[in-house]
TrEMBL record:
PANTHER family: ADENYLATE CYCLASE, TERMINAL-DIFFERENTIATION SPECIFIC, ADENYLATE CYCLASE, TERMINAL-DIFFERENTIATION SPECIFIC-RELATED. PROSITE patterns: GUANYLATE_CYCLASE_2. GO terms for molecular function: adenylate cyclase activity. It comes from the Bacteria. Residues 1-124 form the Guanylate cyclase domain. This is Adenylate/guanylate cyclase domain-containing protein. GO terms for biological process: cyclic nucleotide biosynthetic process; intracellular signal transduction.
């Protein structure tokens, strides 16, 4: 969520929690519709994952992002009347291997580990710098097959924290010439 600290300070902890509940609820339908799985809620973040083939099929991972944006826009009146604002969000996407397993003795939890999690977070952290809502890694950009509905542009090579080599990062947005038509949804 963009500006989450400021929003939390302005709303107070109880109202902020109520807004988060609404926010996550309103975003969840898109996750279901586009075959994602909510791995974890981390504060104001929703971490979503796909098996690679499921995320690529019909561009589910990209379509999910824009469906989530539309879901919030459709609820603008509710958010503005109850909380005085419409929350916005940004995302970073990457693909790669993940190891899943159970940890803990007092409190057991299934966790994912792997470079893909940290890299996705680092990419998302660049959204403000590049004034982009959705950034993806070079690895993912190479295997996406985006229709003309979307515009994809390189924001350049970036050295992400913890990595020894630079990675080209790409911004994805609704193509300007298609913005008045909305997003064309692929059949699933």
């Amino acid at each position: 969520m963009k500006s989450s600290t400021t929003i939390a300070e302005n709303l107070g902890h109880v109202s902020y929690f109520e807004m988060l509940k609404e926010y996550f609820f309103d975003l969840s339908e898109a996750v279901i519709d586009y075959a994602g799985t909510i791995y974890q809620y981390a504060g104001e973040e929703m971490i979503i994952c796909w098996k690679l083939k499921d995320g690529l099929k019909n561009n589910n991972s990209i379509e999910c992002f824009f469906a989530m944006k539309r879901a919030l826009e459709h609820q603008a009146e509710k958010y503005n009347s109850r909380f005085g604002l419409l929350p916005e969000f940004k995302a970073g996407l990457h693909s790669g291997m993940v190891t899943a397993g159970e940890i803990g003795s007092l409190k057991k939890e299934i966790i994912f580990t792997g470079d893909v999690l940290n890299t996705s977070a680092r990419i998302q952290g660049l959204c403000n710098h590049f004034d982009a809502d959705l950034l993806v890694s070079e690895d993912l950009a190479k295997i996406l097959q985006l229709p003309a509905t979307y515009a994809i542009r390189s924001v350049g090579e970036n050295l992400l924290k913890g990595r020894s080599k630079t990675m080209e990062i790409f911004a994805i947005s609704i193509s300007k010439h298609n913005s008045s038509q909305g997003i064309m949804r692929s059949q699933q």
